[in-house]
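Worked Example 4.2. Read the sequence first, then its structure tokens.
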Amino acid sequence: MSATDSTARRARMVELVARLAPGEGYTRSRLDSVSLMRCERPVQRTPALYEPSIVIVVQGRKRAFHNDRAYVYDAQHYLALAVPLPFETETEASADEPMFGIALRIDPSAIAELALSLDRMRPDSEVPPATMVASPMDERMSDAAVRLLEALCDPAESALLAPAIAREIAFLALTGEQGGSLRAAMAQGGHFGRIAKALRRIHDQYDRKLDVTSLAGEASMSVPAFHARFKAVTAASPIQYIKAMRLHQARLLMIRNGCAAADAARRVGYESASQFNREFKRMFGRPPLEEARELQRILRVSEPVQATAGRAASSY
């Protein structure tokens, strides 16, 4: 792809995300698995929680920090996560040049099936699994991202074309420069696969009583082995991970649903409001109300843009 084509594609993506996400925060698209991201100010390093997803930043820059490593995702790189993962992020953005992005949530079961099919058809040499990768945006991924955004501008195309393009983007991530590591992470067998299954259970049932012994038993591991393998994948102990999941979900309930702190604490499984307040401040650095007020614009979710935007002429 020539530099001129690359610049034109990037400009096209910026134009489309600006149209589909007119306000700060996350804007739902007409396809349930896709949200558009817009941020108009820099955000210092702060705890975050992503579901299994592919995140494409088309303008601005984000950095993820996990397990003593930094991952840059910007106009030249996309971020892919194989499992639900708490980590830290920072954002470079301004009112003049907002951070624009696409967040594509992936269904772990469907992607694991795709990964297994790929491995049968084109087996790679053995590669270590990775929970998170930042990979270069090549011509095919950029082209697919443009086509997805264009499809999301039209109700019929959102329903009939966008799901196939989203699957194509997942396919490209699994066959890209670091696709082998992602496929290894999503495989159902082996220690990594069993830890990934436990992470998905925690993600789906964080508001219920969860104990490490049961999780280890379901993974067919002893408690010490499960603890060690779990920490190798997430950089946190099982108890720390469960706590982080509950606190992040409580933060979102306060920001997006307007829940009071005590109600959010109860809904994510806390029995003690004072314990919740202590642990929330320890993780986020601020009391619940202050944190929710500070991040209201950045983490709020808006409904899809309803007007049919139509297809503007492409310039590439």
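Now turn to a second chain, presented in exactly the same format:
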Amino acid sequence: MGEAIVVGVTDAAVSRRAVDWAAQRAAERRQPLELLAIVGGATGAVGEGAIVEAALAEAQARAEAEASRIAAGGLEVRTRVERGNPVSRLLDASEGAALLVIGSDYRGPGSKAARGAHGLRIAAGARCPVVVVPDFDIEGRSGVVVGVDGSPVGEKAVAFAAAEADRLREPLIAVSVWTPLEVPRNMGVYPVEYLENLAKLTEESLSISLAGLRSQYPDLEIVPRVERGYPSQILGELAADARLAVVGSHGRGALARFLLGSISQEVLARLATVTAVVR
């Protein structure tokens, strides 16, 4: 994994939130920051050249203005402007990056879906963790929420979340959710023993996933949570009060690089806070 944090810069209002989030992390981690603006939509039509050149100049000016705005305290900031498909260019930029940061126009409950197909493709296909910054203020929130499921990708999500919680000096809220199997209506209620065993197994799996964190981060407050319900709903509820949420990407099969698991996709579809997707 490389050391630079790459953030996509656009003319959308949320772009400034994404740049600010990335700049703060870069400064605290002493990482270089790259502001990447992309001009897309060119078709090669006659007379298009002048329009493209003007768009490139505008994008360059925007990136440089943002770089000037955040340059402070020795933060290393560089700008880059490219032509092409924004999704493809951002995915290319994720190769060798430490982190890719993008903005979302989602503004909370009642707003449209947080990310369309393009945003989901970026989160799914990037070669590094992707952070999606929604278009609302999270000032005053506390904690880093991470979904824990015991999978290899889930372990990477836990490691990422623990490092971020330690950096932010925030508690790590590690959540494992268990969901009973659907049963025919004529079965009535679930057997008590079955529910108790599910909860116990989930608690044991969570303990295993968190083992070693206390020695690695002795000052980190770790709050384990075992909940019954549907994972994306539980994560969304807890993330609504958190500074950061972290989920793992669980794509499968030959196209796994460009797929998100259903839970991570549902979390991104209704962003509750700044959200990181770890592959």
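Notes for the reader: Residues 1-103 form a domain with the Rossmann fold fold (CATH 3.40.50.620). The first strand starts at residue 5 and ends at 9.
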